[in-house]
Specification:
With 448 residues, this protein is α+β, with helices and mostly antiparallel strands. It is built from twelve helices and 17 strands. It folds into four domains: 82 residues, no CATH class; 108 residues, no CATH class; 89 residues, no CATH class; 137 residues. Strands 7, 8, 9, 10 and 11 form a five-stranded antiparallel sheet that branches. Helix 5 packs parallel to helix 7, helix 7 runs antiparallel to helix 8 and helix 7 packs parallel to helix 9. The longest helix has 16 residues.
Length: 448
């Protein structure tokens, strides 16, 4: 039989919902009792909307209310509340015993032991004492249990320690549904990471964790750097995320300050290392990373004047590669005329100026610079005996002759490439400036 209802209230029933309705005074005939109508599931009801459907004579799920005359009672029985996990409730206080002699043997068992200690009622504030008893704090290790990173209302546990096998490790634990679980972990190796600060660095009303780790190259113990990381909790993803594209690597510890008075802290890296045999010459100065709304990016680079000749040459090469000849040409000219710039390698004076003449010549040819002929003549005067001159003098002559014949940069470069293929020193002399210097390929020497 069919009935029409005007529904004024939306009822949402999760799962399978059954309803029973008994109407007084309505007696179905025999044919209707023998024919069970097809059940039509109720759509989502819009207030004030009239919905028509066929009610089955058999209830799919017993509601313990057979023969109820009030439909609301049936719906209420079908909507009995279910328990919701309480993410704010943490284990009650206890006094778990810890055997100081049962020191964890690796990173996994270290976290498991701390989780067991907290879940069994150990006070978060005493986790630092626990790690200290196991001699896992190292030089920089620390524990904080006073910051709520996730916003659930309960402070989380931030630990910096030295795992027996992994070395330096930073871990964040949180209380979820009555027990502790791990939310974040970074294995940095070496000593325990240094927690620089826990604060709202980017003024988004959420606490961030700024930490770094210090380590040296296995090949060169003098090549040591700080690796700084910045993380925050992102509720949308339910996890901690990095606010940097990658760790900031520096020779000095990073600091933070509000440089431009916008309430957002900028990350400041002082560049004080002039370099060593492994890195090559390094520029000193300051790098400033600023918040762009989604992450911290390098926004200001304030470099001190270069101290070494090759640094000016490399900057000129960088502009040359971008075909910014208006910037490359003055840099090459500065490198040729400066008397204050120092040589990085002992044998550098024997070849570096011939290379500068060569690159200046190419840059001026590309830019149709009027000083092209003067540069060529000056280079010839500086190296009157091509047979006893560096390889770059032969490349100067080859490029000049090819360019004069064809007036085509590509044809001139093909002549130069023929020399480079037979003289590996053309590349080798330039690739000796350390792992922080650009790597030169044959195509870089004459790219046209």
């Amino acid at each position: 039989m069919k009935y029409t209802f005007n529904l004024k209230t939306i009822f949402y029933v999760g799962g399978l919902v059954a309803a029973c309705l008994v109407l007084v005074g309505c007696q179905p005939n025999t044919s209707e009792q023998n024919l069970l109508p097809t059940a039509i599931p109720f759509p989502t009801v819009t207030p004030g909307r009239e919905i028509k459907g066929v009610l089955p004579n058999v209830v799919g799920i017993p509601l313990n209310g057979v023969g109820l005359s009030n439909p609301a009672t049936a719906v209420a029985l079908a909507n009995l509340p279910t328990a919701t996990p309480d993410y704010k409730t943490c284990p009650g206080s206890g006094n778990p015993t810890v055997d100081e002699r049962s020191r964890p043997t690796n990173g996994r068992t270290t976290v498991a032991a701390v989780l067991s200690y907290l879940t069994n009622g150990g006070a978060p504030a005493t986790v630092g004492d626990l790690l200290s008893k196991w001699d896992l704090l190292g030089k920089n290790g620390a524990v904080r249990a006073d910051v709520d990173f996730t916003g659930e209302g309960t402070p989380d546990v931030l630990m910096s320690y030295v795992a027996p096998d992994d070395g330096g490790t930073l871990t964040i634990l949180s209380c979820v549904a009555g027990q502790y679980t791990i939310l974040y972990q970074a294995v940095t190796g070496g000593d325990a990471p240094q927690i620089i600060d826990v604060a709202d660095i980017n003024a988004d009303s959420k606490p961030d964790v700024l930490f770094d780790s210090y380590g040296c190259s296995s090949d060169d113990k003098k090549n040591c750097t700080y690796r700084t990381q910045l993380i925050t909790w992102q509720a949308e993803d339910g996890q901690f995320i990095s606010l940097l594209n990658g760790p900031i690597i520096s020779s000095e510890p990073l600091t933070f300050k509000d440089v431009d008075n916008d309430r957002i802290q900028e990350l400041v890296v002082k560049l004080t290392d002039t370099g060593n045999a492994s890195t090559g010459p390094l520029r000193t100065g300051i790098n400033i990373y600023d918040w762009n709304g989604t992450g911290y990016v390098l926004s200001i680079v304030q470099l001190d004047p270069p101290q070494f000749l090759i640094q000016v040459v490399q900057e000129g090469d960088s502009n040359f590669a971008r075909q910014a000849m208006d910037k490359a040409i003055p840099l090459y000219q500065q490198a040729l005329t400066s008397t204050s710039l120092r040589f990085w390698l002992n044998d550098e004076p024997t070849y570096i100026k011939s290379y500068i003449y060569y690159k200046l010549l190419l840059a001026q040819a590309y830019a149709d610079d009027k000083g092209l002929l003067t540069t060529f003549q000056t280079a010839l005067a500086a190296y009157p005996d091509p047979n006893n001159a560096p390889v770059y003098v032969a490349m100067i002559n080859s490029f000049w002759n090819g360019f004069q014949v064809t007036n085509n940069l590509h044809s001139a470069c093909q002549e130069v490439q023929a020399i480079i293929n037979t003289r590996p020193d053309a590349i080798g002399l330039l690739n000796r400036y350390g792992n922080r210097s650009p790597v030169i390929a044959a195509q870089d020497l004459c790219p046209f």
